[in-house]
Amino acid sequence: MNILGINHFFHDSSACILVDGKLIAALEEERFNRDKHTRAFPEQAVKECLKIAGLEARDVDHVAVSIQPTHRWGTKALYAMKRPHKAAPFIKHELVQGYFKQQRFRQWMKDTFGSNLPKVHQIQHPVTHAAGSYYASPYDDAAILSLDGSGEWACAWMGHGKGDKVTCFSESYFPNSLGSVYEAVTEFCGFKPNYDEGKTMGLAPLGDASNHIDAARQVVNVDDDGQITADLSYFSYQFWGYRRCSAKFYDTFGTPRPFNGEFEDHHQDVAAAFQQVLEECALVLARQLKEKTKAPHLVIGGGVALNSVMNGRLLREAGFDDVYIMPAAGDNGTSIGAAYTVYHQSLSKPRVDLPSHAHMNPYIGNEYSDAEIEAELKRFKLNYVRSPDITADAADLLEQGNIIGWFQGRMEIGPRALGSRSILANPAFPDMKQKINSEVKFREAYRPFAPSATVEGAKEFFDIEVEAPFMLKVCQVRESKVDVLPAITHVDGSARLQTVRSETNPIYHALISNLGNRTGVPVVLNTSFNIQGEPVVESPRDAIRCFFSTGLDALCLGSFILTKTN
Fold first, then answer.
1. Rounded to whole angstroms, how far apart are CA atoms 529 and 423?
2. pLDDT higher than 90, residue 240
3. Domain boundaries, position 61
4. Residue 308 has pLDDT above 70, yes or no
5. Alpha helix locations (H) across 405-505?
6. Which residue, 84, 101, 126, sits at the end of a domain?
7. Do 36 and 177 reside in the same domain of the chain?
8. Is 229 a member of any domain?
9. b/e 528-542 (16+ beta carbons within 10 angstroms → b)
10. pLDDT digits (tens, 9 = 90+) for 452-488
11. Are 166 and 295 in contact (CB under 8 A)?
C-alpha cells in the first residue's frame, strides 16, 4: 500500500511516501524552488519522492493532505462576523487564499492521476503535527503535546499515544496561542515573524528576563485545565493585520526594534522574558499530561517544538524519561503526519516502522552519486581531487582551522542540518563563531552555532543523559569543557547538541571520530549549508555556488575535495 503525504496549504510545503507503513522518502519543496519556507505547491518534492520510492503516480493508493478545510468553519465564520471592521484580512487568508489553494490541489490531482484518482484523505492540521511526531517516535506509550501558531484554528493539542492509536484530550484555539504570541515578540525584536523565531530564542540569553517577566506573565498563561489564554489587548495578530503587536504592547515593553536596526537592552530583555514565559507555560502543559497519562515519555510537535531551549527545559523538569521531537516538527513534517494518520488511524494498520536506536532516520531525502557529482565538477571546469578517505582528509582540514562545506549521502529532513548538507568547523578555535557569522553565513554576530558529537563521546563534554540526534534539545556544556569548545558555547553556557550514531550516519560519525583522534575532542561545529535567507543546498550545483560565494575554505562533495587555493 502506497500513501502519498502532502502539505500544500501551509508554509514549508512538503511531500512524503509511505510504503506499507514504512517512510521511504520525505522532501521539502523549498530545497528545489530555492524559496525558503515556501508556500508553493510541492510538485517537485512529490516527483522526487516517487522517484526515490521507484513508483509511478498510478501506484499511489491514497493521498493524505495535512488540512481539513471544512473543520470548525462555522467557528471561523462567526469569529469574522463579530469583527466586521477587522474581517477583510481574515477573509482573504481563510477564504480567498484557501479557495485558490484547494483549486490548485484539485487541478494537480486531475493532471497527475487523470481519471484513476486515488482516495484523498483530508486530515486536521494539529492531528498531523501530533500523529506525525508520535508515529515517527520509537514509543508505544507517550504523552503528546503539539504547539503551533494559528494552524487550522487549534493551536495547542494535548493527547496520548498508545500502541497504534492517538487520542486527543483537549485543544486551545486561535487566537489564544503560545506560538502567535512568540511570533509577535519576534516581530518586536526586529525579525520576520513566522520565520525568524530561532533568532529570538538565540537573542534571549543576552537579556535579563527579570526586567519584564511579571508583565510578560500577565500577557499569556495556562489554566488548570490546560487552556491557553492570551490577553489580546496587547496584540493585533488576531486580525491578520500588518502589525502583530498593539500600542499597549509597545507602551508596556518599549519601542520595537526596526528591521536590521540596532539592538537596545530592552529588546533583549523582552526576548528573555517571553522565552521564559513560553517555557513556563509548556512546563504546565507537560506536567498536566504527565499526571493524566502516566506515560514515561513526552512527544512534542508543531512549530513551537523547534524551540530547543524549551525542549531542553522540558527534558530536565517535566518528569518524563525522555522528550522526543521529530526533525521536521514544523509544517514541513505534516505531510509525514498526514500519511501516518491515514495508515494507522483511517486504515487501522499496525505500526511496522518503529525506529531503531530510539529515533527515526532523518536521512530520507535524495542523494547524488559520485558519478553525478563529478559530471557537475567537470561541467563547471573546476579543479578538484578525489579523496581515498574523505573523512580523514576532511578531519585534517578541520584540524587546521578550515571551514568546510560537507555534502554527503541522502539529504536530511527538517530545518536543522544533521551532517549531510552541513557547514563544518573546528569548535576549538575561539574566533570561529565570529568568522563564520561574518564571512560565511552573513548573519547577526550574536547567533550561536551548534555542536555535533559522537554518541559515545557526548557525555564527556555535555550535561545530557539522553540522545539528541536532531539538534532540538539544548543542554549545558560541562564547565570544565567551556574553554575547550568556545565556538559552540553560547553566552549562558548552553549548546544545541546533536548526537551522532554510526548506525544512522556512518560517514559523519567517522569524520567526527577522526577529528577526535587528532585533537582529543570528538565534536564539530555544525551549521546548515546555506547563507542567511536561502534554503539548505539540495544539489551539487547549489553547493558549488554557495562555496564560491562565501568564505568557505574547502568543499567536500561526495568523494571529491575542492579548495580555493588550487
1. 5
2. no
3. 2-126
4. yes
5. 432-436, 458-461
6. 126
7. no
8. yes
9. bbbeeebbbbbbbeb
10. 999 999 999 999 999 999 999 999 999 999 999 999 9
11. no
